[in-house]
Amino acid sequence: MITHTEGESNTSEARRAWAALHPDAPTRELLARDADAFLHQSLSSPCVSTIAKAEGIWIEDTAGRRYMDFHGNSVHHIGYGHPRVVAAIKDQLETLSFSPRRFTNEVSVELAETLGALAPGDLGKVLFTTGGSDANEVALRIARAATGRFKTVSFWDAFHGAGFGASSVGGEATFRSHIAGPLLPGAEHVAPFNCYRCAYGHAGPESCALACAKMVEFVLEREGDVAAVIAEPMRAVPVVPPPGFWKAVRAACNRHGALLIMDEIPTGLGKTGRMFAFEHDEVIPDIVTLGKALGGGILPIAAVLARRDLDVCGDYAIGHYTHEKNPVTARAALETLAVIRDEGLVERSAELGTHALDHLRETVGHHSLVGDIRGRGLMFGVEIVENRETRAPGRAAAERIYYRCLEAGLSFKISAGCVLTLSPPLTIAKGDLDRALSIVADAIGTKAA
Ligand SMILES: Cc1ncc(COP(=O)(O)O)c(C=O)c1O
Question: Does residue 8 surpass a pLDDT of 50?
Answer without folding.
Answer: no
